Amino acid sequence: IAALAELPKNEALEEGSLDANAARAVLRLGALDATSEETAKTTLEELGCDVDEVLLMELIDFASKKSGLGKEVQELIARSVAQVLTDLEDPDMTTTALDLLTQLFREEAHSRITVARCLEKIYAANLDGEEMVNKAFRFLLRQGLSLTSGGSPEAIDLRDVLLAAGIALIEQQGESFAERLFSTVEDFEDSAAGSAAGESARLGVAVFLGALSKHLGGDNPKVPEILPRLLQRLLDKTSTVSVQNAITKVMPPLMKMNKEQATETLDQLLETALAPKTEAVTRRGAAMGLGATVKGLGIQAVSQHGLLKKIEAAAEDKKNAHVREGALLCLEGLTLSLGRLFDPYVVSSLPLLLQAFSDSQRSVQNASQSAAGAMMSQLSGPGVKQVLKPLLGSDGIGHNQWRTKLGSIELLASMTSCLPKQLAACLPQVVPALCGVINDQHAKVKEAAREAINKIGSIISSPELKAIAPELISALTDGAQFEHITRDVLDKLLSTSFVHHIDAPSLSLVCPLVQRALKERSAEMKRKGAQIVGSMVLLIKDAKDIQPYLPQLLPQLKVTLVDPIPDVRATSAKAFGTLANGLPEEMLGDVLPWLFDMLRSSESAVERSGAAHGLSEVLMAKGADRIEMLLPDILANATNKDAPPEAKEGYLGLFVYLPVAMGSTFEPYIEEVLTALLNSMADDVSSVRDTALKAGQTITRTFGSSHTALLLPPLEEGAFDVDWRVRHGSVQLMGQLIEQILRAHRIPTNSAELMQVEALPREWRCHMLASLYIVRSDENGVVKQACSQVWKAVVQNTPRTLKELLPTLMQRLIANLASTNREKQRVAARCVGDLVSKLGERVMPELMPIFMNTLSTGDTHVREGVCIGLAELINATTKQLLSDYLGELIPAIQQAIIDDSESVRNSASSVVALIHNAVGPRATTDIVMWILAQLEEEEVEDHGELFVNGLEQMMLKQPGAVLPIVLDQLSSPGENGWTKASVQGLACLAVVPDRNIVHRHLSDVLPVMIKVASDDEGDPELREAAIFSANRVVDCVEQGG
Asked: Taking each helix axis from N to C terminus, what angle separates 886-897 and 902-919, rounded to the nearest 10 degrees?
């Protein structure tokens, strides 16, 4: 099937040279096999195979194979034939198939068993119309059963299948054609063929009559005659088990129709079963018949006739073993016929079974084992719980008496007969209990426990685990004493390639072993145990199979998740993720709340780290929706300044693992999470900062080369943060980001030239390098050193790189200079100075136009930032270079001096003072003269205040240079006399810091102001301005002056 699953990819199929229909017959068989069902059905759909007559003939041809077909394959062929006929919905095709199969049955003796199974399935599902039904029934009576003479196992199997086919036919068609079928049986009995018929045909007559009886009605005169015939066959000492089973299957309807006859039969059968001298075969037939009779009468017959008391009395007969055997056979018969209806009586029957297991007679022991197997195979879920309680308690396997222990063990071993669902429910308790007595002091108890575990191992259906079942059992029985045995088995489990699901018996052997491994001191054993837990969840078919083991496995897995060894924690975290992905959330119990609790643990960083890793895997398994729902709370807790440090560390630690676990699905959260991590690097607690950095490194390492555009903005912003620790972390992460990008493009990281790496967009390269170059001027030595190391690693020729980088660098510098963040401004200003001092003439031609243009067009913060940058530039450049650009610089500074923002005026006046110190008074004189000229103009009245403010800033910074010019120009009237602005300009004397200077020059300014204020014919506004200015100057006079 696995090979045929590759057919849809075959090129020959697409070309038309290969016919896909050639594979459909085998694929139809595979589609009915639980181990290959999914693969086969998918392949059939992909190939688009239809159902037709050719397919039917191919399947019938499979049935004709003379040898080599096991029972499972025979069943698959039979089911496939019936299913194809059902899909075709063509009675003529069904007739054709029946004719071919009956012909094969007559002519090919070796293929009869397969053909018989095909007939059974067709009779149960595909017969249509009275004639077809009667023809099929006649074949069974006159030909089919007549060819099954002999006592060989093959002949008995064939007879049983034909009997089952007849019963299936009667079950499906009896209600419609009961009279016709009954007539066919009578005709056969009256015919010569009936008289000469062999034992099988005569048995068939009896069984079919029994099956037909419920469709004939109780008033039919033939019905009372049927039961004696059935009982005769049932109690015949030559009957086989299969014959007895076939008869008891059809008896209940007869009993139900004739209660009086049934009551007599019950007493007769019970007496026969418990009689000391009854033949063994007859005894069994009577016991099986007793169960069928009770089923017909109803479960109340057990108590009405006191059956259990009589059986108990017989079971305690010390004199005759045959009587005890008969009692146990009666229990078996009642169990097989009544099924789960007998559950209430099973617990009360346990003492009989336990006693019989250690009986001195072998026949009684065998009967007890057979009865126990029958009971276990019929138990319901609640019935299993009722039985396990006494068997696992002090009255069972924990009893002091070895015989009671022995019986309990054998009864527990018989639970392998349970239905799969019940088996999965009981084995988690049975296997540990057996392991507990595996080294019992009594040899028989020890031997029985080992045999019981071997029996459980024998019913493993997973081929891979069945192959190593002896090793598993050896590890369970001896691994506690010899660790190497357990280690070897764990290695085998991990190295096995599984292609089949793990069933409940397999889990019952593997889970206790894994639990022991998780408890070991060895880190290797714990790691392997956790790894197997994760693998098991992927291999189970039904999550409920592993549910009983979770109460033992989860606590141990929690312990390994907080193990001191990182490798053990990592493997356990993966196991938790697999559990969360493969199991319903309700099965995990408190795992998610526990992980969140451990995330905030104050015990140790190891516990928080393990919980973070485990939680990341679990959240990933739960899906993006769950993460999106929880992420705001996680980030809020991680960045909560009032939270305990261990809580912040735990929540931040989640991002050490979550990005890796989520992969590309983490993309929507990259910026938000990285920003939060960078902010956490400013925390006062070092462990919180370290965890935040580690998480940032994980994100950068995971997404650096694939999501660079998302990582850059938070890192560039963090590089200029107020807190130096955030800047340091951002620089480190940016270095790692660049390294990841280079490695992704296979570029050596020790001698790279990032600006030349064209695999990245030029804009990205410029942004990263500009940020790094600016941060090289950081005030903090640690940040500066870290940034320099990154720069040296990715830039081999700094002057050339800076020249290419200059436009972007200047944009970043101006943006930073314009920032309200003083740290950004200071770093950017120092960077400007560094840039000019290193490159000088090479950058000034490009730098100055950018500065000048921005100074006249930018907003307030930008203009202030440019002035700050110019101040650093003036400090860094040479006198000659500054002189060369003075002509361009002065007009720009003039505008900044009269800016409407005080901070800009202040910064501009500082620039003028620096220029004055660097190249002399030219700039100061030119700017002051320009301002004074503007103050004397009448048109300046509307915005004269700005010129006055600018003049004041210069006076404050350079009183020695500015004051003489002001007094010389404004102490006498201009061509148009004094203006309001010129009078206010004289009052700038008031801002001079040195009051002695103010005192010395009072005689230069006050007469002018008094004169203007006393001019009665003058402008009232001018006089008012003169009085205000005089008051302002006088207010600056100190007492000593």
From this structure: 150
